Amino acid sequence: MKKLRYRIRFNDRVGMVRDISEIVAKEGANISSLAVKRGEIYLQVEPMPDDKLHSILRDISRIPDVYELTPVEWMPHELAEQQLRTVINSVREGILSINRSFIISTCNVRAMQILGFDKPPVGAILYNVLDLPEDILELMEKGKPVEQKEVIIRTSKGPSRFMINSKPIFDDRGKTAGAVITIMKMSEIRRLAHSLTRPVMVTFEDIIYQSKKIKEIVDLAKTVAAGDSTVLLRGESGTGKELFARAIHMESPRRDYPFVAVNCAAIPDTLLESELFGYADGTFTGARRGGRPGLFEFAHHGTIFLDEIAELPPHIQAKLLRVLQEGSVRRLGEMEEIRVDVRIIAATNRSLEEMIVRGDFRADLFYRLNVIPIYLPPLREHKEDIPVLVDYFIKKFNQKFNKSVQGISPDALELLLNYHWPGNIRELENVMERAMNLCKGHIIKAKDIIINTPSILVSPGEKYFHLEEMVRETEKEALLRALSQGGSARKAAKILGVSHTTVIKKIKKYGLTPD
């Protein structure tokens, strides 16, 4: 039924409210709401027959000093409430307000969505509908703020992590009258942080090629990107596995969520589990107060890229298998499992099949990872891409070094085409960077191309002149032999009798690759 609301404007004087009230009462009607401002009165009356309403309006308009009587859509307080409701429903945080007895008086749409409520729990007691920790409830009761507290709340969709903030409300006497609580999903916070800090991502348009072989691989990767299945990228070091992983992510429906790249060989065994899965407060000495989410949690709704997956130790292989099977992670030191929605793209340059035979890699994990295998061929198998890659690197390093190199001579390009490129595209990039530094004109010449012959820069007499240089060469040779014999950074560390971290640092120091 239509509500009857009117605005009455008048020359301000004493007794106007009394005159209006008497007219309404004379007709036997009820005033349901009345708002008085200087020179204005907003009147809402209960529904009534039309003849009685017309009589009331006629008599009010005849009151001395009344000069305007018009119908309105909203009473002032109704409009303010509507505006406030629109504001709190437009923010990304869930908002709840409670009184001093913890009874909920406000719940916005976002709070209902993230907490799984079918209807607003207005009138319910807060701790009966939300299992908040006791320390947070005590702070609210004492009128103290709660700032950025991470909690686990059980919802209709299972336990989830939220960030809680609370600001107290005080009455005129300074007594605690309630609180306003804001709730935000941790995954949403991580997504927001990612959107503000993420680097520019690559797409399939950024992959440089002209060969039919790479085109077929790109077409395959574009097709599988639209799905959600696990992808296993295989190929030698330097073939562009991470480039393809990032392009698959950007082509997928998850493009607006985080892409998290993890080099499984670069993180020591002692830290790898806590990095991937996180840890609870006080789990170990030096643990951050309040605990820390793992990379799987950070990648929620996005993609996690596990490079050098073959380097995962057995106990972490088991936990990764559970993530793939159950879609949940458990932080170190916690019993609660948290649901994560993550697409996994793994990569390796080793034969996982051989590792399974030796017992170094779980067969069940391999089958879970190998849903969509994509093999990236070495550069020596698609040398027709070298000319377009060379052009790309010339443009890239022209911009980086502020040079104006225009191209490469035929004999210099011939040198590149005749080389077998064990380091693949990464090695080609290094050779081109060196050539761009050495080039003195506008064309790269054959003398500017130095491939795999560092001794050309140092004479034999100088090479072992200093003891420090001799030690470096000996250390490098021992490292190369251990890597060759062990096949991985971890195995090399055991052969040399040093830590895995030391081997990784030495690999970076000498510009080597783990394979």
Automatic annotation (TrEMBL):
Keyword Cytoplasm among record annotations: no
Database matches in SMART domains: AAA
Domain ACT, chain residue ranges per copy: 5-74
Record's keyword annotation contains DNA-binding: no
Domain Sigma-54 factor interaction residue range list: 207-437
Keywords in alphabetical order: Activator, Aromatic hydrocarbons catabolism, ATP-binding, Nucleotide-binding, Transcription, Transcription regulation
MF terms in GO: ATP binding; sequence-specific DNA binding
GO biological process: regulation of DNA-templated transcription
NCBIfam families for this protein: HTH_TypR (TIGR04381)
Protein name, UniProt field: HTH-type transcriptional regulatory protein TyrR
Source organism per UniProt: Thermosediminibacter litoriperuensis
Upper lineage: Bacteria, Bacillati, Bacillota, Clostridia, Thermosediminibacterales
